[in-house]
Structures are given as structure tokens and as C-alpha cells.
Amino acid sequence: MSKVTAIYPGSFDPPTNGHLDLIGRGSHIFDELVVAILRNAEKVPLFSLSERREMLEGLTAGFKNVRVDTFDGLTVDYAAKVNASAVLRGIRALSDYEYELQMALMNRKLRPDLETVFMMPAEQYSYLSSRLVREVARLGGDIRGLVPEMVERRLREKLDSQNSSTRKTKAGRA
Ligand code: PNS
């Protein structure tokens, strides 16, 4: 039987325990899983592409059939480039479904032989998103258990450095 490669595309800004949960599940059912970080020119991310790549590489080092890459352009074109026959996406709640269905059907229109496979993360991560993690961390809330410890530390360092450069700018203006 031929090897089945899947891509798991996303922004991963930052990677959460929900992402890792899905990577673990995906690594069990696919022969190879490529975690593909989108180089999105429109959004200004909190973590640079290389920071996100480095974090994900560290976090997935224990999975022998998982690798991390970056891409721009269409997901379907990237999937073709790496010979992937499936796109892995997580569905947390019903609210994800409409957007994910639209994306999956558009991707199918663009490349009919590429299947989207939806998986559910563990229940305790069903409300978790990178956007909420960034917001809670920025406002001083506790994000323990929502992201790996390494990401928690990197978030704290990132927000501290942003706060100190804001203070310096304000002091310069005063
Ligand atoms: O983690 P995210 O931000 O929800 O991931 C969204 C992602 C990267 C899967 C989506 O924005 C995407 O596929 N972008 C690449 C451009 C593309 O193919 N657009 C058409 C999708 S139907």
C-alpha cells in the first residue's frame, strides 16, 4: 500500500495544547503528517514565522512521522507539492463547522482528489484557540494547561518585551 501523507495547515500563533492533541491523533492515522504554517502577509502575527516553526519543531520532535514546514499561496497547491492526499483540520464546536465546511468544499473544488479529514481534539481543549490564548495572556490571565510550558514561557517573554518597548516609546515621547 502506498504511503498516505497529510498536511495540517494553520497559523499556529501560538501552538496550543489543542494543536498538539490533533497532531498526536493525526500522527496515528497517517503515515506522514506535515504541520504547515501559513506565511500570511495579511495578518500581523504575534510570533514570527521562524519562532512558530522553532516552537512546533521542538514540540513535535517526539513524533517520528511528523515534520514542520511553512507555505504560502493555496493550501491545495502546497498539498500537491508535498504529495499529500489529505488535509487534517480540527473541529472543536459546531461554530467551527460552517467555516471548515466552506474551506473543505472550496479545496475540493480546486483539487477533487484531496480529502479533508476532520478530527475532534480532546474535550478539555474544545474551547481553546490561539486567539483566546493571546488575549488571556496579554491581559495577565492564567494560561497554564492551555499551551505547552515552552509556549507559555515564550509568550511571557514576548509580551514582556512588547510591554517594555511600549514603555520606552512612551517615555521617549514624554
Ligand atoms: O489556523 P487557521 O488560521 O484557522 O488556518 C487557516 C488556513 C491556513 C487553513 C487557511 O487560511 C488556508 O488554507 N489558507 C491558505 C490559502 C488558501 O488556500 N485559501 C483558500 C482556502 S479554501
User: Shape, please?
Assistant: globular
Main sheet, how many strands, which sense, barrel?
Answer: 5 strands, parallel
Distance between the termini: 68 Å
Series of secondary-structure elements, N-terminal to C-terminal: EHEHEHEHEHH
Alpha-beta classification: alpha/beta
Q: Can you list the ligands bound to this structure? A: 4'-phosphopantetheine
How many whole angstroms does the radius of gyration measure?
17 Å
Average pLDDT level: 94
Number of strands: 5
Strand order of the largest sheet: 3-2-1-4-5
**Number of DSSP helices?**
6
Estimate the strand proportion: 15-25%
Helix content: 40-55%
Unreliably modeled segments: none
Commentary on this structure:
- This protein is an alpha/beta fold.
- The chain has 6 helices and 5 strands, in the order βαβαβαβαβαα.
- A 5-stranded parallel sheet has the order 3-2-1-4-5, sandwiched between helices.
- Strand 4, helix 4 and strand 5 (115-119) form a beta-alpha-beta unit.
- The chain is globular.
- The mean pLDDT is 94.
- 4'-phosphopantetheine (PNS) is lined by residues 9-11, 38, 74-75, 103, 106-107.
